[in-house]
Design goal:
Blueprint (H helix, E strand, L loop, with lengths): L3 E4 L2 E4 L4 E7 L8 E7 L6 E6 L6 E3 L7 E6 L4 E6 L8 E8 L2 H5 L5 E2 L3 E6 L1
């Protein structure tokens, strides 16, 4: 398993941008599909975006498509989530996840979770 640590969350206004980072431990980072999830107060954790080990394949939830971009730097064991045109409904704790395949990420069955980082978007 990899250890995951998110950073980059904060308080922003609607329309602003924010970039989240997730640093992973270990020397096999490129073998893992990575993903981002989020959980708003009183709601279940939901899938946001996923990226393959090579970075060549990405998937997004419909609610963020066109506004969020997932990317990774395998040399730095880091995955990013660039969030543009933020909306108040994007407010949530954002979690990074690692899985053996994209399918495990999309099914919310990763092998590792980060501790989460809070994103708050004010109107």
């Amino acid at each position: 398993q990899v250890q995951l640590v998110e950073s980059g969350g904060g308080l922003v206004q609607a329309g602003d941008s924010l970039r989240l980072s997730c640093a992973a431990s270990g020397r096999t980072f490129s073998r893992y599909a990575m993903g981002w999830f989020r959980q708003a107060p009183g709601k279940e954790r939901e899938f946001v975006a996923a990226i393959s080990g090579s970075g060549g394949v990405t998937y997004y939830a419909d609610s963020v498509k066109g506004r969020f971009t997932i990317s990774r730097d395998n040399a730095k064991n880091t995955v990013f989530l660039q969030m543009n045109s933020l909306k108040p409904q994007d407010t949530a704790v954002y979690y990074c996840a690692a899985g053996a395949t994209l399918a495990t990420i999309q099914k919310a069955l990763p092998s590792s979770w980060g501790q989460g980082t809070q994103v708050t978007v004010s109107s």
